[in-house]
Design a protein that fits this description.
2 helices, 11-stranded parallel beta sheet, mainly beta, Pectate Lyase C-like
Length: 222
């Protein structure tokens, strides 16, 4: 009899945004020149504040946003590919349709960010503040969350399979009915994380987290 093969170990892999080194700066009125739909490509936008903007579609490709504020804005849909945000204010931004491919949010304020049923691939959210953000029934593929503050965030029903949570605060976050197979929580704060026993199956946790999740699984550790 041949010995049973060990299951192939999951290896996390995320593709970074494909950005040129000589991206041209955009005019300060880049968000104001179009009344309904906004399209931006191959531009660097820096130090612009546009609060409470309401528009149809925001489409961005191969661009960088630095210290830009879109706080309290509402878009019917947001479509982004190969985009990087650094030090931006996206608090209370809301959209009904979010599609992200190779997008990074670095040290951004995203409290109250709302995007249900989002489709996100190769996304990085690093540092910043994401409390009360909502990503219900979304799908993240090859997503990396680094030192994020997701306290009281909502990931109910979201597919986070294969995602990496590194040194994140997930206290009181909602993850009931989420898909967490190969989701790596090691090193993150998980006290108060809302989920059921079937939700945590297949996730990767460290020994201290296993103690916390033991009650969900009906395990007594003595």
């Amino acid at each position: 009899m041949k010995p049973a093969k060990n299951p192939k170990k999951f290896v996390f892999s995320r593709r970074e945004p494909q950005l040129a080194h000589d991206i041209a700066p955009a005019a300060e009125d880049a968000f104001l020149s179009e009344s309904r739909d906004i399209s931006i490509a191959d531009r660097r936008i820096e130090g612009v504040t546009v609060r409470g903007r309401a528009a149809g579609t925001l489409r961005v490709e191969s661009s960088v946003f630095h210290r830009v504020s879109l706080a309290d804005s509402t878009f019917g849909s947001i479509l982004m590919k190969d985009v990087r945000f650094t030090g931006c204010d996206l608090a209370n931004l809301e959209t009904r349709g979010l599609s992200l491919v190779r997008v990074e949010f670095i040290d951004c304020r995203m409290t109250g960010f709302r995007a249900g049923e989002a489709e996100c691939q190769d996304v990085l959210i690093s540092e910043g503040d994401q409390r009360y953000s909502q990503f219900r029934f979304s799908r993240f593929k090859s997503a990396e969350f680094d030192a994020c503050n997701f306290e009281d965030a909502d990931f109910q029903g979201t597919d986070l399979s294969g995602s990496l949570f590194r040194k994140c605060n997930l206290r009181n976050a909602e993850m009931s009915k989420a898909k967490l197979f190969n989701t790596d929580f090691r090193g993150s704060t998980v006290e108060g994380l809302h989920m059921n026993a079937e939700d945590i199956r297949g996730a990767v946790v460290d020994p201290s987290q296993a103690m916390i999740f033991a009650s969900l699984l009906g395990i007594r550790i003595e």
